[in-house]
Automatic annotation (TrEMBL):
Belongs to the ABC-4 integral membrane protein family. LolC/E subfamily. It comes from the Bacteria. The lineage of its organism: Bacteria, Pseudomonadati, Acidobacteriota, Terriglobia, Terriglobales. Residues 25-247 form the MacB-like periplasmic core domain. Residues 278-401 form the ABC3 transporter permease C-terminal domain. It is a multi-pass membrane protein. This is ABC transporter permease. Pfam families: FtsX (PF02687), MacB_PCD (PF12704). InterPro entries: ABC3_permease_C, Lipoprotein-release_system, MacB_PCD. It is found in: Cell membrane. The chain crosses the membrane at residues 20-45, 274-300, 321-349, 369-393. Keywords: Cell membrane, Membrane, Transmembrane, Transmembrane helix.
Amino acid sequence: MRFELFVAARYLRARRRQAVIGVITAISVIGVAAGVAALIIALAITNGMRRDLQSRLLGSTAHVDLMRVSGDGIRDWRSLVQRMRQQPHVTAVAPGLYGQVLISRGPRSGGALIKGVVPADEKTVSDLLNHVQKGSADAFSSDATSALPPVVIGSDLAETLGAAVNDSVLVTSPQGELTPLGLQPRYARYRVVGIFHSGFYQYDSSYAFMRLADAQRLFSEPDLVSVLSFKVDDLYQAAAIGRQLEAAAGPGYQTTNWMDQNRELFRALKLEQVVTFIVIGLIVCVAALNILIALTMLVMEKTRDIAVLMSFGVRPDQVRRIFLLQGLLISATGTVIGLVIGYGVSWAGSHYRFIPLSEAVYSIDYLPFAPRVIDAVIVSVVSLLTALVATLYPSNSAAKILPAEALRYE
């Protein structure tokens, strides 16, 4: 062991005449550990929120959507789908027809966004039909006719309506038809064949699926779709691929992608992560002030010992390193303890999901944790650098002690 490290470790273990220094040192270690643990847990939560929201968004929506600029729908969609499937980077294409409706069952009702789909194609670009927890979406793929056409609704929408599998619901479209009595809304009855639960409140509370042909009849739009949805091989290049699809589709088309649709959400999460790091990082700064106080008082207590060491030939730069290493030992001890606590709590939260959330407020039903190794590296570096800055003054003061002056009256 190097001489400076040996003396620094010895000073930390030694019994002191002033008990307050030992108390402040212990508080410094606890403060560093609390700050590091809080930072690791907070960063794990923000990373988990970002990961889960992105995963659920990508599982529930397409990477790229293609639609007409005029908004009047795509009429030659079959030939366009075949052409788009041949484009580079495209892994799946699905047509869809969107429409806002009112779904009611008895006295209970709720607004919903109906999407008419081709089931086999829709499952290649979205996972919502794969998350059916009650009933089954197989009726979508079946050509068998029944008294009522099938519909699949979200779990929160089903709870709002009080609907269960095999119940009938009334779907009312605002796109009505003109009668001698005026414009009358168009409505039809459907049978609930499945209830999906994605864990993402936006979809569970307001989404419903029906077959494309049924949606076209409901909205009086024969052989028309409003959007073509794409899955691509590189979701982070969705914007560039979208521009290629616009050029391939021809004039009059535009695309949107998952990053544009959720840009504000991810920007807010990034800002929250930065603010959280700064605010909770103040705990580490307070602990660094405790290190400064503890080392300053220790230098005052050890003035005679430092003078004796220097009279034996210890150089000022060695004395300086003794107290620098002592501050780093305090910070390193607290950092290691904080990392163990932070990653332990994060692992438990990720494994057991013991903190529930309101889906209506946070869009997900539990608090996610996603600790990363890079966060541990960043937090550790910040903690050690802060402690290093705090030790500069007391270590320089120790190095400036004059042995003759310190031992004059001994």
